[in-house]
Design goal:
This protein is of the alpha/beta class and 274 residues long. The chain has a single domain, classed as Alpha-Beta Barrel (TIM Barrel). It is 39% helix and 16% strand. It has an 8-stranded parallel β-sheet. Strands 1-2 form a two-stranded antiparallel ribbon. The chain is globular and about 40 Å long. The structure holds ligand 7PJ. Ligand 7PJ binds next to strand 7. The site of ligand 7PJ has 14 residues, from strand 7. Catalyzes the condensation of para-aminobenzoate (pABA) with 6-hydroxymethyl-7,8-dihydropterin diphosphate (DHPt-PP) to form 7,8-dihydropteroate (H2Pte), the immediate precursor of folate derivatives.
Length: 274
């Protein structure tokens, strides 16, 4: 199993880590710490040293009720960081966490190799931007929008509905000429899901392997882990590592995490003992 993305062929035969690099001032867990270009670059280099196989750069928080960021501001946040990292010839692909086609295009031009889209390329023009590039793409499931998604999410069968959505979006990508080895699929933990929905999905993650694309899982520091442990966001490291381990045991290929060093080490044990 591998992912083709830009100039990279990412080996996913063992579970790998995508390190989160937020350059938003209001991200819920490390908001405000990495808004300056220099400190964002320094953090990114640390994540690579800690073993991240991908860096995921985001300039707009998608937490529930987050305020949308205007296009120009999002560009100003993320593009200089991508350019600075590309100029340093880093050895890992850069992923851009955005749903805006103009940000996707600018990020790819600046050297990003993966588009991580919580709206699964449903924004007008987004599919065309990715299809016209050689970037990889992560298609994530979300019910509703970040403004309203946690109000009262409802499913008849959460696994079936998430799986049908991901299959349909994958098929639209294939029809647009984006080959299956450029596509990551993600059930979107916390995006329009209750605690019960998140847990049901986590338990049946392996069912998504039928879709024949590598799976990305983002559970790091998320509220479901707070609900399970009673810990607030600053104290969810152990829970996050446990969630990454369980996900990898069920077949997840890429774990999107804040705590790269701890997760990379835990995943080495998964790989050795599985
Ligand atoms: C995810 C994401 C996720 C993907 C965020 C947070 C909220 N992208 N972006 N999957 N979550 N693909 O990190 O808690 O789960 S932002």
């Amino acid at each position: 199993m591998h992912l083709r993305c830009g100039a990279f062929k990412l080996d996913l035969s063992t579970p790998q880590v995508m390190g989160i690099l937020n350059v938003t001032p209001d991200s819920f867990s490390d908001g405000g710490q990495y808004t300056h270009n220099e400190s964002a670059v320094a953090h990114a280099l640390q994540l690579i040293e800690d073993g991240a196989a991908v860096l995921d750069i985001g300039g707009e928080s998608t937490r529930p009720n987050a305020t949308p960021v205007p296009l120009q501001q999002e560009l100003q946040r993320v593009i200089p960081v991508i350019e600075a990292l590309v100029a340093r010839n880093i050895a890992v692909p850069i992923s851009i966490d955005t749903y805006k086609p103009a940000v996707m295009r600018a990020a790819i031009e600046a050297g990003a190799s993966i588009v991580n889209d919580v709206r699964a390329l449903q924004e007008a023009g987004a599919m065309d931007v990715v299809a016209a590039s050689n970037a990889g793409v992560c298609l994530m499931h979300m019910q509703g929008t970040p403004q309203t998604m946690q109000d009262d999410p409802q499913y008849d069968d959460v696994l079936l509905e998430v799986k049908d959505f991901l299959r349909a979006r994958r098929d639209v990508c294939l029809a647009a000429g984006i080959s299956a080895d450029r596509i990551l699929l993600d059930p979107g933990f916390g995006f329009g899901k209750t605690r019960a929905h998140n847990i049901a999905l986590a338990r049946s993650l392996s069912e998504l392997l039928d879709l024949d694309c590598p799976l990305l899982v983002g559970l790091s520091r998320k509220s479901v882990l707070g609900q399970v442990t009673g810990n607030d966001v600053a104290a969810r490291l152990y829970a996050s590592v446990a969630a990454a381990v369980v996900s990898a045991m069920q077949g997840a290929h890429l774990l999107r995490v804040h705590d790269v060093k701890a997760t990379v080490e835990a995943l080495k044990v998964v790989t050795a003992l599985k």
